[in-house]
Amino acid sequence: MNTAIKSQDPLADVFTIAGRSYRARLLIGTGKYKDLEETRRAVEASGAEIVTVAIRRTNIGQHKDAPNLLEVLPPDRYTILPNTAGCYTAEDAVRTCRLARELLDGQALVKLEVLGDEKTLYPNVTETLKAAETLVGEDFQVMVYTSDDPLIAKRLEQIGCVAVMPLGAPIGSGLGIRNPYNILSIVENASVPILVDAGVGTASDAAIAMELGCDGVLMNTAVALARNPVLMAMAMQKAVAAGRQAYLAGRIPRKRFASASSPLDGKFF
Predict the structure, then answer these.
(1) Phi-psi region of 86 (alpha: psi -120 to 50; beta: other; left: phi over 0)
(2) Which of 30, 158, 204, 207 has the lowest CB atom count within 10 Å?
């Protein structure tokens, strides 16, 4: 089950991934921006501490003569989370994670995603499970993108993944949280961090994910392809924080009929 600390002190409200604690519950991607300068400005505006990098599409040192993302997002300031975006088989995903570990001086933390097809970018669960087992066996710390199936989410946790990241909607769709009850079921039965990954389109979507009790939200397209990515990054930071605070505060129950804001009991006249 989710083990949130319902504290009024925001500095005490941290979550832990692979033994490291983070205050920023917004994780942000680094693709699709117009250039590295826009990437830097948006990431800074988001307040993110973890930034995810598509190893197959982004240079972090494998191409010596090309601009290097790590020059604008240094690893001593951010946790660089390499991901396997663009991989369609377990074999390709595992190979990509091994490359990332070499490029990042032995870092074990990775984001695993194995896609099913180019049209939907829906996760291939069979290949994801296979890759997760291999990577955990090689001592990787695996944050895993998956479907919204609570049984699959639990299986990935049992395999040894350090965080499970179900989609809210297909990657890049901007449809928002289309499956709140599935997400809620995953959260209620988890003993590792649960983060919504994919589908967020605007700030209210991020807030909803957090109000469900998720430990964080990972996004890229919603920020990078906004008309003003830096401003959207700021909005997303506030939305994630507001959603988290609302979850900790505890919402009132939904009712069919109104109740007076000022009760008549105990009136003076």
Answers:
(1) left
(2) 158
